[in-house]
Amino acid sequence: MQSLIDIQQQLLPDLLVVMKKRYLILRQVMLSDMIGRRTLAASLNLTERVLRAETDFLKGQGLLLIDAAGMRISDAGRRLLENMEPLYKTMFGLSDLEERIRERFGLKGVSIVPGDSDTSPYTKRELGRAGCAALRKVMGKDDVVAVTGGSTLANLAGQMMTQAPLKSNWFVPARGGLGESLDYQANTIASTLAKRTGAQYRLLHVPDHLSDEAYMSLMQEPNVREIVEVIRSARIVVHGIGDAMVMARRRRVDESVIQAMEAEKALAEAFGYYFDRNGEVVHKMSTAGLRLEDIVETEVVIAIAGGRSKGEAIAAVMRFGHDDMLVTDEAAALEIAAIMDRE
Amino acid sequence: MQSLIDIQQQLLPDLLVVMKKRYLILRQVMLSDMIGRRTLAASLNLTERVLRAETDFLKGQGLLLIDAAGMRISDAGRRLLENMEPLYKTMFGLSDLEERIRERFGLKGVSIVPGDSDTSPYTKRELGRAGCAALRKVMGKDDVVAVTGGSTLANLAGQMMTQAPLKSNWFVPARGGLGESLDYQANTIASTLAKRTGAQYRLLHVPDHLSDEAYMSLMQEPNVREIVEVIRSARIVVHGIGDAMVMARRRRVDESVIQAMEAEKALAEAFGYYFDRNGEVVHKMSTAGLRLEDIVETEVVIAIAGGRSKGEAIAAVMRFGHDDMLVTDEAAALEIAAIMDRE
DNA sequence: TGCAAGCGGGACGTTATTGGTCCAATGTAA
DNA sequence: TTACATTGGACCAATAACGTCCCGCTTGCA
């Protein structure tokens, strides 16, 4: 059955949204015995007109009875609700989870794909696809999109598709180069995204990890300075989330710094910064890319990360509180929910 | 899984239509390796613009690759098609069958619900619902709808719903009263339908089975005459289909006539007439209701009947050739298809 | 190498659909 | 009877869908 839903999701992505809306209307009506349109619209957060279109439809389907006194559920509607009961969890379980997490961290949107990226490459791919969808949704015209590196972002970039070319948009790396494999460099990802969407891109040919002096002198270079300004003006940022220690080592951060971070219980890494479990930044360093103050200013910040092992790190970064959207997977989301419950 | 589809059918009735359209596009593209929009539109009987909207969508979903050379399927699309293969039959098998039957008998539309009305009351209910949908689709303003009697029609009437009241429409019985139970009388059904849809109705208080003399004298009555004229002017006729012998006995047709019909191999009964397997009428009698010549003139004739045992009778009436729509169930449809294959 | 057929995609005007808002008619309960 | 809440109709604005035409590009054939 899951496979059927997966297929339908690909062929009719907003199927579940519509189904859920209608299900909830029906359910609310049943719980209310008899209820009026306005009351119902208010309790479901729908405008009166939209609700009316839906109730007219449900009436036509014979699931709802409407008369001058109000609406109540029909026998067929009651039967349908009963039959849907067992399906509800599998069909909408994730969107409930999405809503809980969205609410808790004050996000604009949360998107959860089924599965666990740690164990299933398929889930990882889905995660990328969901990331694409989230990004597509917020991109407009003339937007600058800054992206970080990492395997998840690389996965996203490799799957990105658009209906029409986005000529007027720019993709830029959020940070400079790291010691990682080429495929996972922010530069590579920005360029892949631009190529796949028909957008433009700029690269930042500067190491991410800089001494203050090197930073100052590099920023004197007009061409470096120029692209850095573009990066810092990004309206949209898409970033991954990593484990603090793993990332620090991969970035060859000084052993002394690593130990300091360990002492401060650094847990998560995102766009080059390290966070403890409360979302406090525990280590800063000068960077030619996006700085914390830029992130705070950015209009849309999208985090994308999945896998049970990353749940804690994701929760930490969410506590930092400057993300607007989270794209994750079921395993990580359950982990996050568990952390929320423990609070 | 079937239950999921059933539920979705109620909450999103045209889900399958859209899914099938997209599936067929994808499939056609795969079979064609590389194909252009216009060619594809022609081979799928879609207008160019509609197809374009769909292919843009499929491209956005990453299922289709489009470049200046044409369209081809992506890996994800190919995977999707493979995954759908087993689902196709359960999801669309009936609509293929619908199309075959529609084509063979030159109908405007065929609607098949899953199951067998002979054995499952649930299927019988579904049949009624499908009949409602078919009827709703063809009803406009100021229409006169003539309905016959029978349990299937009664079932339909009991489930009929409309979004808005159809004040300007009239429901009338197609034929006079029979010896049957009150619930199954055409009069009862016309009145139920009118009440449930907010339409008007007229009754025909005349026995269906009349001697020529009685017929002539009854037709002198102004009020009988008036309603009979309304009936005969019906734009829409909805009728059931029965087994000839069963119906004849139920109607207490003279034993001599029954034997004559048996000799002529009467097989099916519909709107008071008896048909042999070739759709030829084998017995006529004067009636105050709809006559054959009225049926021939009627703009929309809808047949509704299901159950494996009725397959043969349905096929016979379809051969008569004046129906426009058929609403039936899977068991009967398969029986009809088997008869078609034997031809 | 040149040509023509077929391709995607842009553009535009028209039509159909959807959503917001207001109000009249109606039924219900106090 | 009155006051309230209900549905359903009406209307307008915004938007999406659609039909149609054309342009520039690629590609395969001559």
Automatic annotation (TrEMBL), chains A, B:
Residues 91-336 form the Sugar-binding domain. Residues 18-86 form the CggR N-terminal DNA binding domain. Signal peptide: none annotated. Gene3D superfamilies: 3.40.50.1360, Winged helix-like DNA-binding domain superfamily/Winged helix DNA-binding domain. The keyword Signal does not apply. Keywords: DNA-binding, Transcription, Transcription regulation. The keyword Plastid does not apply. It holds the Pfam family CggR_N. Belongs to the SorC transcriptional regulatory family. This is Central glycolytic genes regulator. It comes from Paenibacillus plantiphilus. The gene is cggR.
